[in-house]
Amino acid sequence: KLHWLSYALSVQVNGDPDAAVGILDSYFGTLEEGCEEFQKNFESSELALYKNQLLSETKGEDEDGLGGVRKALEHLDEIEKVVVDHTGWLKAKLSYQLQLGKFEDAKDTVFTLLERGLTEEHRVHGAYMCALLKCDRETCLEVEKMKGTGTLATLRLISEEERNILLEAYGSNDGLSKLYPRSNGIKRIYITILSTNSEEFKTAIDKYCQKQITKGVPSLGADLSSLYLMEDPRSNGGRLMLATDPLDVKTHPVHILLVDLVEEYTTSLSSNNSFPNGNGESPPSALLWAWYLRSILHEQVAEYSQGITLINKCIEHTPTAVDFYELKARLLEAGGDIQQAADVIDAGRNLDHQDRYINNQTTKTFLRAGREEDAKKRIALFTREQGASEQYLYDMQCAWYELELADLLRRKGEFGKSLRKFMAVVKHYEDYHEDQFDFHSYCLRKVTMRAYCDLLRFEDDLWGLPNYCRAAEETAKIYLHIHDNPSALESDAEPDYSKMTPAERKKAKNMARKKKNAAAKGGAKSDAKSNNTNGGSGNVKKSKPHAIDEDPSGKELLALNYLDEAKKYAAILARHAPNSVSSWALQYDVSVRRGKMLMGLQSLFKMKSIDSGSHQLFSRVVDFSQRLESRSSKCHDTSEEIISADFPKLMGGNTLSEFVKSAIERVKCDTDTALPMRTAVAKAIVSSGVGSAPDSLSVILDSKLNCRCVNVDSCREALEFIASVGVDSGKGQFQALVATKFPFLKDF
């Protein structure tokens, strides 16, 4: 049996589901009638559903290419008597019915699933909407893959006619709201269907907010933020995206409505202890959570001072609520004072030492504040006492901690140690990749074939997951930084004693010796503490000795070829995260340093296909043009022909000066242009000689920081450029603007 299943699986992953079905049929043909494989049990059920999945992947002989789906739908009826996972059986049936356009049958299947208790599963509701609106196959499959609370109503714009159909299905007297009155999911979905400009939407959101505030639900602000839907400017099909930039959120009709409602709540609760038009008194905590929600609304539009004022009132009212300290820390961090944010969230952590989440948030904030030792003490509270915390976190593959610590070390200029931590995260993902072999024999023995197929598909996208992408990208950037600035490693090298006086040499050696002894003493203390923990108990099991890190400073990583290492990770990201602009920006940066101009040009076209308005694309197009003009040698004749023919397309057939001037005009016409784009255009003005330093400063200063993507990091980058052009008056103006935008920012 194991050999048959292994053979079928290998053929399937090789892209031939028809042959895999034939192999399973051959296996079934070797069995006797009435054997256990044909009885109703878990293994028979999983094997039958696996064959059904294979049938759906085949093309069949039908002209529309859906012959396999039709066979799979018919096969479901044949295997129903042996299937144990009836919910999975119904979901497969629903998917096939939608793909084949059998919308009435799909509705019946949806109601069967809802009766089985799946009223809170948004994928089922998404399928129901597709059946009601009779969507095409591609849309049905896309909705089927949506995660979280996404449905068809949050995927694309819907017409008034479609909206009325959905409202009738959910809100009428015989709709889902009446059939399942206790379902929170149905109530929430009904709100997403309503038009945000309608009076009915205002009534529904008012009722929803009052109920959640009365209960004291801290996640209400995050829940309501999912209603900030706007049309995606990059799509041509009326697709929706979530508004996250404060500039977009502030003008969004849902946010404006929420602000008005919450202001009414706080006024009414303060004076009457009841909601507007309320039937009776509200609990005393209602005003508290109304303040909390209003503070979150301030946070969403970058009004940090107002948010702090309200959250301080919450803390003064109830100083034992951890959520208030967490929100205050977020406001302080976004407002620029990361040090105070770390102290505030640590004060909240002290209120509940058993809360792992708030302890992790405290650790993360300490790392971002550059307080490494404090962060290590906090994270050690939830690690095993018998072993070293760093090794325990590595063994537990705690990637978020290692990423934050690596970023801290990078900012401190300790590139070797930073690379060690980033490489630890890369190693975790290599372990994930190797672990699939452990599942192979187990899944075949237990016949969990569908779950194993899902695992293999997950492994296909493993190298494109966010944590791996961040680790790989930062690793490559460190190598590129060292390649461009070899002097960056000099701080880690032993000082040159030959150029010192005898007194200076003696002092330097004493300092180096003390530093080395302190490090050794600290390590010995740590080991002694871990060995003596709970020393009074004789039953404490001694921890196993962990592997010694022979290269804690990352010297071996720094000894590698910088461009070769950067090339390796850039290629991985370009292959496995091809829809990210950052992946191709990194590929470009590596390619041009290696002299591969054609690969650099390819990366630019890839970036343009993803986001033609990206500041990363603009700055690299300017850089490519300047490299072409200043290079000492040309490429191969064929490559030169391609570059000469295709590169002008990126610049619209303009010269570099004309290209930069057109960007200046676009920035001046669109006041909402993102700050990173403004900084990139300002840099291009100076580097290309199109304008003077004051001209470049006006591109940044004219916005008054009332544009998109304004945060502390983007402001620091802009200030760095302003300082480099040497216009002191412009630097002072920009610092004044930043001080107004980020009232808690220090040392700027």
Task: Give a written overview of the molecule.
With 748 residues, the chain is mostly helical. It contains 39 helices and two strands. It has a two-stranded antiparallel ribbon. A hairpin with an 8-residue loop joins strand 1 (229-231) and strand 2. The longest helix has 32 residues, at 415-446. Mean pLDDT is 90; it is low at 522-543.
Key words describing this protein structure:
1% strand; two-stranded antiparallel ribbon; 748 residues; 68% helix
Strand elements, count = 2
Largest sheet: 2 strands, antiparallel
With strands numbered from the N-terminus, the spatial order across the biggest sheet is: 1-2
Distance between the termini: 68 Å
The number of distinct helices, counting runs of at least 4 residues, comes to 39
Mean pLDDT: 90
Strand content: under 5%
Helical coverage, percent range = 55-70%
Envelope shape? globular
Instruction: Give the low-pLDDT segments.
Output: 522-543
Q: What Rg do the Cα atoms give?
A: 30 Å
Helix/strand class:
mainly alpha
Write the layout of secondary structure elements.
Blueprint: H1 2-13, H2 17-29, H3 42-57, H4 67-79, H5 86-99, H6 103-115, H7 122-133, H8 137-144, H9 152-155, H10 160-171, H11 176-179, H12 184-193, H13 199-215, H14 220-225, E1 229-231, E2 240-242, H15 246-250, H16 253-272, H17 285-300, H18 304-317, H19 322-335, H20 338-349, H21 356-368, H22 372-379, H23 389-395, H24 399-411, H25 415-446, H26 449-460, H27 466-484, H28 502-532, H29 555-558, H30 562-576, H31 581-593, H32 597-610, H33 615-630, H34 637-650, H35 656-669, H36 675-688, H37 693-701, H38 712-725, H39 728-741
Antiparallel strand pairs: 1-2
Helix pairs in contact: 1-2, 2-3, 3-4, 4-5, 5-6, 5-7, 6-7, 7-8, 13-16, 16-17, 17-18, 17-19, 18-19, 19-20, 20-21, 21-22, 21-24, 24-25, 24-27, 25-26, 25-27, 27-30, 27-31, 30-31, 31-32, 31-33, 32-33, 32-34, 33-36, 35-36, 36-37, 36-38, 38-39
